[in-house]
Every structure is written in structure tokens, then in C-alpha cells.
Hints:
By secondary structure, this protein is of the alpha+beta class.
Amino acid sequence: MFLFEISKEYKEFLATIRQWSNVKIAFTETSIWLKDFTDEQMKSASLLQIPHLVKYKEKENLLFLNDSLLPSKKTPSALLWSPIQKALPVELPSLNHNFFGVQQQIDVQIVPSEIERAAMAMLTSIQNLQDYLEQCPEVRLTPLKWVLLEDKALVIGTPLLPIKGVVFWQMGNALVPTGFDFELPILKDIIDKKVNFNSENWILWQSNNSYVSLPKENVQPLSLSSLRLTL
């Protein structure tokens, strides 16, 4: 088994991996200990880029650095392990209700994520969509809806069409590119209320942190006739 150690003073660097619900964490007086990473997680950039994080291989209550034959230290005793998301909650700053700082704001960041979700939408070219609709059975389109976005079509619903396009997964009223998530997932409901107060729109996020607001009333059932009429 592998254990990881980081000094408590560098606790904030663990924010990049706190979404990994399988990881367990424990604390001693001076250090933070982590375990139960998958092989894929141990090779990921999210973990490898954390500074001051030391990796040990544990054997018979001894900790070995890399492939060293000599133990570096003993495994700490009586560690109380808990899920990392529970032990490292996202802390929101307290509000001073007597101060209104109009210049204060939170920058919304879309960052790579290793959490898998079901894809729910696709942004594709009009030509790609039309070519497919002209030869596919109508029953294939029954669960799907679409809306025109400049020179492209956003198709919403599953199963996704087998055509080339950018795929998104759904987070409430937000559609986020697959492989990405909000940097602070706990704020996604707050972000949604800010940009989509009445929940009347789909918010299509891009990996460059920009977004497009699409009224839900403009979304219509997908069919070749609806595409032709819209165009």
C-alpha cells in the first residue's frame, strides 16, 4: 500500500484532489496523511503537481521512499482515516453584512476533472446534423431536442447522435464540456443563480470560462422538418 505525507502548512495544495471521494485522509500533529489512491490517480497531473507531497510504500508498518531498501520512518500509529471531501470541506468566507464591496467578485473557472458523468448534449455543425437527419429513422430522434446557436446546432438528450461534435455533460441548468468541472463545485448552484436567476435558460459553458445563455423556450424537438424550417 502507498501512503502520502504533506506538512499541515501546505494543506491548501490538496484542493486540487479533494473531489476524489475514494481517497482517505488522516492528521497527526504536524502532517497530513493520504491513502487509497487508484493507479490512475497516482499518475495524474492533479496529484503529481502538488508540491511538498512525499510518497511512501508501506510494508510491515514501515515506510520506504521510492525503491529504497531502508525504511525512512515508521507508519504513524492510531491514524483516524476519513473521506477527503469530509475532512477538507470547501470553506466560504464569512460575510460582513455591514459592508457592501461592489468590486468584490469570484472568477468562475472551468478546470479539468477526472470525475465521470453521463454526456447529455452535443454541439455540432448544421451540415453534420442535416446529413445525419436525412438518413436516420425518425424514432431515433424521439428523445432529442435542439436549438440553433449561430452556425451550429446544440442537440440535447440521450442517446447522443453518432456524429462529430463537442460533447457536454449536465450540471443542473449548466452544460459543461466533458472532462471539465467548476473549480469550486460547491459554488455551482450559486453561479447558476447569478447567471440564470429564473432557471429559464440552458447555460452552455466553454473551457475558456465563457458561457452562452440559451432560453429553454427556444429548444424544440429534433427532426429534419424542424431543422429545415429554422434554417
